[in-house]
Amino acid sequence: MVSVIQLDKLSKIYGTGEQAVHAVNDLSLTVETGQIFGFLGANGAGKTTTIRMLLGLIYPSSGEASLFGQSLQDAGQVRQERVGGLVEEATLYPFMTGYNNLKAIAYTSGVTERKRIDEVLDIVGMRSFAKRKAKTYSTGMKQRLGIATALLTDPDLLILDEPTNGLDPQGIQDVRVLLQHLAQNEGKTIFLSSHLLHEIEQTCTHVAIIRNGHLVRQGAINDLLQTNSVTRLTVDDISTAYALLSQNYPTEIVNQSIEVTVIYDNIPDLIQYLVSQNIRIFEVTQKQQSLEDLFFEVTHD
Amino acid sequence: MINLVWAEWLKLKANRWVALFTIAILPLGTFILLNILAGLAVVNIWQPEMVAINWQEQIILALLFANQLVSQTLFIILGAITFGGEYRWQTWKNIIPRASRVKIVLSKYFIIILAISVAIRGIALMTLIGSWEISLALNISLMSGAWNEVSTPFVQQYLWLTIALFFNYSVATLYAVIVTLITRSTVAGITLGVLIAFGDLLSQSAFDLVASLISVDAIAIIPRILPNYNVQNMMQWIISGATFENWSLGLSFMLLSMWISIGISASTILFGRQDID
Questions:
Q1: pTM more than 0.90
Q2: What is the C-alpha to C-alpha distance for residues B107 and B268, in angstroms, rounded to an integer?
Q3: pLDDT per residue over A42-100, tens digit each?
Q4: A87 lies within 8 A of chain B by CB
Q5: Are B10 and A57 an interchain contact pair (Cβ–Cβ within 8 Å)?
Q6: Which of A38, A119, A180, B1 is the most buried (most CB within 10 A)?
Q7: Alpha-carbon dihedral of residues B256, B257, B258, B259, nearest 10 degrees?
Q8: A13 touches B at CB < 8 Å
Q9: What ipTM score was computed for the predicted complex, to two decimals?
């Protein structure tokens, strides 16, 4: 099956010579149908640059990328028909009402049914504010309308850059529920970047983490968080166990227990090894790593 | 493409102060001026002078007045805002993924050209309405006496003037659009657009001066290919019935069409290759 998004050594360099800034560096990743894909990275890591390349706002310096199997250069039609996007904050015409903003964008997208405008207004809960001029909107309202514009064409792929920016906790939860509904019930694929790691962890099925334009981790959230989970062991001889384990694994002694970072699948081997060394094990618990732990682990020096 | 034009129309309609200031100000100004004259006629001020006025000539004069840098500036502003507004509000990000860049640029040009046409027609219509009001105030027939019957030369002269005006405004708008696309700034588009239009206006004198200073007559010919010389050539022909020496009306028409085509193509290519940050 054709991947929804496929990036292969995609790079974007701003400027030339010594002034050159490598915003995205040899980035390769794959997003499949139905995934809610979280795209994580610190400020300046290259998230927005990548999203801009996907949406055709800027041109890649090198590498290959495709949307629904169409290379980015030839993806104009696919982008117009099957992709909805929101880059950074929602951008609206301040002198137009929310409704007319949607109408102008709908016409630009080739959507002429007024019913669809009402539908997306209902989806984002902005129907009652639609007759107000956009310049009177709060950041959260603008963001909701931005999401509405992304939904206008009923796209198969939603690319959202920081969609919860400026939203209150209720708004953030609403967006999370909406995205999950769109993915699970309407089969849409969602590619979103966010700084809210907890939100990503709750919303996304897959993530990619980038650092300085490079991909540092990608996969299903559950796999990633289990891959390097911390296992806590309560044993009779802590010092011997520590000496044995620290040779092969990152190990710490915490509160009379040993915490060892080990790949999930290797836990049985580790236990067997300790037993073979005559260490008596009283308790084994797994401390689930959070996305935040993983993020800081892979993005910090 | 038609949907894109509708989208542009919605934006222009909603941005009513810009539309009023750029498109409507000349027709409205004409209407207000003529209504003041009608008012004066009602209270018997300047009545004999107004009875003697040839109003067909006034329509021509109104269009000639519209053919000035100050009027061009209005469309320089419109062109700069139509394109520059999308940078200012960062709305390019919202529309570029939705339609081809070429079609977006062309739809904007379509709306600008429509606006220019509406403004030119508006000036003529308002002049007609204002003149009719004056004729009522003076108690003279619109189609007789001071007005005379609408003559064929008047219609021809009027139509040619609207064509010359159209070229004049379109070229000025293109200056503004290209500068705006390069600088991504509405203010720069307006400022440099006016400066370029002004430079075009002064080009003949400047090149004449250089030609005489360095004694190379050929240099004085260079500005003839620029838009302003050819608009002036058209005006010369419209007013006097003869073009400038060795420069036919057809050549001017061709050169102006070429400048507009080059301008639209250049800006489309320029925008098509532009990163939107």
A1: no
A2: 11
A3: 888 888 899 999 998 889 988 989 988 888 888 888 888 899 888 888 889 999 999 99
A4: yes
A5: no
A6: A38
A7: 50
A8: no
A9: 0.77
